[in-house]
């Protein structure tokens, strides 16, 4: 595979709360040389560009401007956060119909000007939109990634770290499967500084408590509902998740991240996009890992795949009816 020279240019389609949280963290990171803002509401993209540009005295130079799709022709990565958000009580899958229509309109416009860039998707339901983009719109699975369960994994690590009284970064625990209600915690490999959760005793004397751990998982899985109930949307942590993925791609870090990509027979699952620990570097998905799992975890993962496949089939049959 030939890898094109990096331009340091990032495109962002969808300048709402999620997109701009990513953009705000990106300009502070020094990673990009240019950031192109695109939104169906062009005035909003212009306003956001002005606002970010007024911070240029305080960050390393980066050219930020609102434009249309033609400006993406030499972008390294296009981050897509465009589309409807969840209303209180609405699931991510409820958004599918609305946001699939948005994607059918905008992804071909990206692809028409740039068929090299990595397309990184945050819009929900992120796994099905990643699948539709990789399989049916772009047709190149390696360069289409969804943010997947990276955010859920971050929430899980935070909740476990807060419970045990240790730094979040010392907690190694993954959420795989759907970014949504069927996601799966990998308890069997979860550890804190190499000590499995079954053996770990925190500085505050917290030891293994299955019921408590299950509550921490439910708090992780349902976090978006809780946040949306209180402040209508979630955006800061997904913004940082997107920055981490973008950094891994731009710097070819080969970071292992739970991103969503089109699976090809991992744990017997194919033709659906969902998250497993994945090596991410220049060009996008480098390798999806065969994470060790118990048979119950594998069952949970396959169930998650089936939930997504069923939703994809349902949307297609409802649209062809
Ligand atoms: P928002 O309403 O604040 O912003 C959405 C933006 O998309 C708006 O600026 C809108 O004008 C723009 N847009 C809509 N249709 C467009 C089109 N056809 N072309 C270009 N721009 C278009 O919403 P938000 O809070 O930023 O959320 C965006 C998406 O991210 C939602 O689908 C939400 O569910 C999802 N989200 C994902 C995660 C994750 O972990 N993957 C986390 C939080 C939110």
Ligands bound to this protein structure: nicotinamide-adenine-dinucleotide
- What is the second-level CATH architecture of the domain at 9-148? 3-Layer(aba) Sandwich
Strand order of the largest sheet: 3-2-1-4-5-6
Determine the fraction of residues in helical runs and give it as a percent range: 40-55%
Radius of gyration: 19 Å
- The CATH topology annotation of the domain at 9-148 reads as Rossmann fold
Mean pLDDT across the residues is: 95
Overall 3D form = globular
- Identify the CATH class of the domain at 9-148: Alpha Beta
**Could you describe the largest sheet, including whether it forms a barrel?**
6 strands, parallel
* Unreliable residue runs: none
What percent of residues are in strands? 15-25%
- What would you call the structural class? alpha/beta
Superfamily at the CATH H level of the domain at 9-148? NAD(P)-binding Rossmann-like Domain
Account of the protein in words:
The chain is of the alpha/beta class and 321 residues long. The chain has a domain of 140 residues: 3-Layer(aba) Sandwich (Rossmann fold), CATH 3.40.50. The strands form four sheets. The protein has a six-stranded parallel sheet with strand order 3-2-1-4-5-6, with helices on both faces. It has a three-stranded antiparallel sheet with strand order 7-10-11. The chain has a three-stranded antiparallel sheet with strand order 12-13-14. Strand 12 and strand 13 form a beta hairpin. The longest helix is centred in the C-terminal third of the chain and has 26 residues. The mean pLDDT is 95. The structure holds nicotinamide-adenine-dinucleotide. The site of nicotinamide-adenine-dinucleotide (NAD) has 33 residues, from helix 1 and helix 3.
């Amino acid at each position: 595979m030939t890898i094109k020279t990096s331009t340091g240019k990032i495109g962002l389609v969808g300048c709402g709360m999620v997109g701009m949280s990513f953009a705000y963290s990106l300009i502070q990171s020094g990673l990009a040389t240019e950031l192109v803002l695109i939104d169906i509401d062009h005035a909003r993209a212009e306003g956001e560009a002005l606002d970010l540009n007024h911070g240029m005295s305080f960050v390393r130079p980066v050219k930020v401007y609102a434009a249309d799709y033609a400006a993406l022709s030499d972008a390294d990565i296009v981050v897509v956060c465009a589309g409807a958000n969840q209303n209180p009580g609405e699931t991510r899958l409820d958004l599918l119909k609305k946001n699939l229509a948005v994607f059918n309109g905008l992804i071909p416009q990206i692809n028409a000007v740039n068929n090299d860039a990595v397309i990184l998707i945050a819009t929900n339901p992120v796994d099905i939109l990643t699948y539709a983009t990789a399989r049916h719109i772009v047709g190149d699975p390696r360069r289409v990634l969804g943010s997947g369960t990276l955010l859920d994994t971050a929430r899980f690590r935070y909740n476990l770290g807060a419970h045990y009284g240790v730094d979040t970064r010392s907690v190694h625990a993954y959420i795989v499967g759907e970014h949504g209600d069927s996601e799966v915690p990998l308890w069997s490999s979860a550890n804190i500084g190499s000590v499995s959760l079954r053996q770990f005793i925190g500085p505050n004397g917290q030891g293994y408590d299955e019921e408590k751990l299950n509550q921490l998982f439910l708090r992780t899985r349902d976090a978006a509902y809780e946040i949306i109930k209180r402040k209508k949307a979630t955006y800061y942590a997904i913004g940082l998740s997107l920055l981490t993925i973008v950094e891994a791609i731009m710097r070819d870090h080969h970071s292992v991240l739970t991103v969503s990509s089109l699976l090809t027979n991992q744990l017997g699952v194919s033709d659906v996009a969902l998250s497993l620990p994945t090596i991410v570097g220049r060009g996008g998905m480098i390798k999806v890992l065969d994470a060790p799992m118990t048979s119950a975890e594998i069952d949970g993962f396959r169930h998650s795949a089936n939930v997504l496949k069923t939703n994809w089939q349902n949307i297609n049959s409802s649209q062809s009816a």
